[in-house]
Amino acid sequence: MLVLFYPSVIPSLFSFGFVFVVLKCWALDPVFPISRTVQVRYGYFAEPRPVHVACARGWMDMYDDITETYYEVSCYPQSSGRFAAARLDSGELHLAHLGSAPLAEALARGLRLVLLYITQYAGDSQGMYVRPGSNITNPLDLVDKTIGVPFGSTMHYQVLFLLNLFGLKGKARLLDLSPSEIIKAWDEGRIDIGACWGIARDYLLKLGGAGNPDIDPATPLVSAKVISDWGRETFTMLVADKKFTDEHPRFITYVTAVLSRLNDSYLDRLGLIDPKMPKDGQQQIPAPLQPVWLTH
After folding, report:
1. Is the pTM value of this prediction over 0.85?
2. How many CB atoms lie within 10 A of CB 15?
3. Could you say which protein family the record assigns here (predicted)?
4. How far apart are CA 25 and CA 197, in angstroms?
């Protein structure tokens, strides 16, 4: 199947809703002449978010009727914003989600990136999670404890702020671990706290069937939302390589409109529960998205 959308009519279509034209491949050539195809590489974090529906459904694919260009988007999961920024710099990715801290670091290093859209406020989706039996009930208990956190991430930024706020600078051990390494270190008993999000967070909290059956669920110590309330807000943004945005402005406008509409659709229905959802559905955390190879 091929999803086609005409940027020249985005305003009128979006005023009436989220409209797509779906056609069979065999109908493409005689009706929609394609002068070139652009393969777009898009990086996302493996967390359940409204904007990821665009990857799963292929809704970011676009046919530009003015330039006769077809944009085909392939989506790749990223473990952290630091790695995603490096891939944007190397050209491995054209667009990617980055946390506010990795984006600030990337811009400070001179990477030519463009902020397109703020996709989410971190809130309760990430935080610091404590190993059961570690006797950590408040930040002052972090003395001589080991914290696993991806360096350069939004959580690293907030952990450093928290330690400084409570006068604990240099009194806790920080290990630079990716989300998958946090899971391994948790199983091996090498860390007392995981400062993380996504699949690592779900694993430590044992959500959605994840987690080590031999270890009790972690206890949340503090969320990104609480630390934000104390003065260190964090966000996730969609950013793009500047050269790519300069060369494909109509596609960039289209993608930003798609993600914005998905977020708006979700927020318009916030608090509504699908009657088909199980009664304990709020505890059912969707499995992380897998790489989406879009073939039509």
Report:
1. no
2. 7
3. Belongs to the bacterial solute-binding protein SsuA/TauA family.
4. 39
